[in-house]
Amino acid sequence: MATFGTLSDRLTETFRNLRTKGKLSASDVDGTVREIRRALLDADVALPVVKDFTAKVRERALGDEVNKALNPAQQVVQIVNEELIAILGGEQRRLEFAKNPPTVIMLAGLQGSGKTTFAGKLAKQLQGEGHTPLLVAADLQRPNAVTQLTVVAEQAGATIFAPEPGNGVGDPVRVARDGVEHARRQQHDIVIIDTAGRLGVDAELMKQAADIRKAVDPDEVLFVIDAMIGQDAVNTAKAFQDGVDFTGVVLSKLDGDARGGAALSVASITGRPIMFASTGERLEDLEPFHPDRMASRILDLGDILTLIEQAQQAFDEAEALKVAEKLATETFTLEDFLEQMQQLKKMGSMKKMLGMLPGMGQMKQQLEDFDEREIDRTEAIIRSMTPGERRNPKVLNGSRRLRIARGSGMTVTDVNQLVQRFEQAAKMMKTVARGGTPNIPGMGPMAGMGRPGASSKRGKKGKSSGSRSGNPAKRAAENAGLAANPSPTGTGFGLGGQKAPSEADLAEIQKLFGKN
């Protein structure tokens, strides 16, 4: 979530300074609130929102809930998190469907805000939920707007109603009204109307949008706003609220590199909930907006719930069980590995998924350096293998590896590294599947956590740990010493083992504590 990157860094740094203090004074709280105010203003959050937000944080931070807390710094973070959730809308709101279909959803916003792309994304998401949406091309002013919506509808696999060619030709109000009637006849349960935008707010735009709303009486009017628009977002939102009114907000281009304060301002200023967030260019990159999860991301607390939901959508449960069985029976192959990578790609950007993990804001450089194309390169190498080579990588000799490298456009070193990583990963997964503990490269086995009853290789071979001296007399003496004083076994943390205390030791301990 690049849009809130700078704000997240500033807030995280502010809270990091708090964690060194055991108790917070009034000056500590004032300094923290001052830094939060600066961070929000630098992120283009509207001034009224900043004033209200910081006043509430300061009041609560100076209250008893922080003074009596075991960890005041964590309590302040919790307060900021709760207040962020509040200005982002509080609770998530979903689309409200009409009791008698079709449900009419009208889109409004400035030109270039992403209305047409969002129409396709919403249609695709609704289709996945079992609905039959109809896209209505009522943007007849912008050049090639009808053509763009037609292409987007085709990509989403949705039906489109576009009786007019656009480019200034046709009556958008009549098209919107006819589109709803067409949906009713063809039994589409949802209608998504894409309306015209302008480069700026003007009377003509507002009148046309208001006329369409009056003609079709939509169940939802979604205001699509570019998260990169900056301070002007508040003025634009107010103008649309006064001229057309809307029931919900859609944030587009959240994957951009803008400061993103508009997103924190719109819900608070207009009183309308943010319902969707567009996080990428693909039609799949649309998320329901959860204020609590977005606040967690901003504060670098992670968003595990969204990550789990995306994984559940991308991974097939039956396939996962099949893979688990293969791991347990040691039949996991490169073909299975390829299938798992393809399912992983369905989840979207790896950078975005990793960014949802708690604390990943502190590893921003590592995330930036992560190359998304590495998965494609790995896939190319595996696809250049024959089915037999994928099932049994041990047959890969030098000539085969050269052929695979040439076929995938990679080097023999790349092929060797892939095979080596796969063998290590397969070995680790097999160990885990059998209930053991993997030997992580560079760390060694984790002692004390192995599978019960498992024996080491040294134990299997039955090798003696006695003296190896070539002098028989010396060897006998050393072995006798080892038998009298066996070496400690050690603990899982590499510490020497301790003998059980004798009765004399216990008596001495009791004397130290004054007990008889």
Could you explain the architecture of this structure?
Its main location: cytoplasm. Belongs to the GTP-binding SRP family. SRP54 subfamily. This is Signal recognition particle protein. Keywords: Cytoplasm, GTP-binding, Hydrolase, Nucleotide-binding, Ribonucleoprotein, RNA-binding, Signal recognition particle. It is a single chain. By secondary structure, the chain is of the alpha/beta class. It has 3 domains: 85 residues, Four Helix Bundle (Hemerythrin (Met), subunit A), CATH 1.20.120.140; 187 residues, P-loop containing nucleotide triphosphate hydrolases (Rossmann fold), CATH 3.40.50.300; 98 residues, Signal recognition particle, SRP54 subunit, M-domain (434 Repressor (Amino-terminal Domain)). It contains 24 helices and 8 strands. It has an 8-stranded mixed beta sheet with strand order 3-2-4-1-5-6-7-8, with helices on both faces. Strand 6, helix 11 and strand 7 form a beta-alpha-beta unit. Helix 2 packs antiparallel against helix 3, helix 6 packs parallel to helix 7 and helix 18 packs across helix 20. It is flat. The relative contact order is 0.08.
**Can you tell me the residue ranges where pLDDT is under 50 for at least 5 consecutive residues?**
440-464, 484-501, 512-516
- Share of helical residues: 40-55%
Can you identify the CATH superfamily of the largest domain?
A: P-loop containing nucleotide triphosphate hydrolases
Q: What is the distance, rounded to the nearest whole angstrom, between the alpha carbons of the first and last residues?
A: 66 Å
From the 3D structure, determine the CATH topology of the largest domain.
Rossmann fold
What is the correct CATH architecture of the largest domain? 3-Layer(aba) Sandwich
- What is the 3D form? flat
Mean pLDDT: 75
The radius of gyration over CA amounts to 32 Å
Q: How many β strands by DSSP?
A: 8
CATH top level assignment of the largest domain: Alpha Beta
